[in-house]
Design a protein that fits this description.
This protein is of the alpha+beta class and about 190 residues long. It has four helices and ten strands; from the N terminus they run H-E-E-H-E-E-E-H-E-E-E-E-E-H. About 30% of the residues are buried.
Length: about 190
């Protein structure tokens, strides 16, 4: 196979989640590496700026405020959702108690939120596809440059997309599918 750069017969090594977790456990990938496994590739993430960090905190506080007992929030922690993927979404709503996951990462989430400034293409592309493929029922992208919330619901079985997609703006409200009697103002999520 010609890769276009004059190298013939070279292929990328695709990593499994098991191999990736072994590298983390052995210290090959240190926590400060800021990497995630997506589609079998180890992706280097950019360091967080103050705006991104502030938005993640605002989202976490707003979502935490609507959670009933029996659910908890993960902030920038691994989700073992696919054999070739272990993303670390900015915010994820997980069913069960925190201690239920002392020896393993959650394999699903009711809601995943990514805060996007420099990562918008990745969040709309590969991450959205991975979350849909994993059956995550609701995926939000807080689009900081546009000051909007992109809501994706109802993953298409066997596809890498969502059936329902809409964009909300400051002043709009959102009710997560899993908690339909609650409301969050989009303004509360924005720095």
């Amino acid at each position: 196979m010609d890769t276009g750069d004059g190298i013939v017969g070279v292929q990328l090594k695709r990593w499994t989640r098991e191999e990736y977790e072994a590298m983390v456990a052995q210290g090959i990938l240190a926590p400060e590496s800021h990497v995630q496994l997506l589609d079998g590739e180890i992706i280097q993430m950019t360091p967080q700026g103050a705006l991104h960090r502030t938005a993640v905190t605002l989202v976490a506080e707003a979502v935490r405020g609507i959670l009933p007992p029996g659910y908890h929030l993960q902030v920038q922690a691994p989700l073992a959702i696919l054999d070739d993927g272990e993303p670390e979404p900015d915010v994820a709503v997980i069913q069960g108690a925190i201690r239920d996951y002392a020896t393993r990462h959650p394999t699903t989430a009711l809601l995943v939120v990514e805060v996007a400034d420099t990562s918008l293409d990745l969040d709309r592309g590969r991450k959205k596809a991975a979350y849909a493929r994993a059956g995550i029922s609701e995926y939000w992208i807080l689009n900081l440059p546009a000051r909007s919330l992109e809501v994706n619901r109802d993953p298409e079985p066997g596809a890498e997309t969502y059936r329902a997609q809409r964009t909300l703006h400051a002043g709009d409200e959102i009710s997560p599918v899993s908690f339909p009697t609650t409301r969050i103002l989009v303004t509360a999520l924005l720095p």
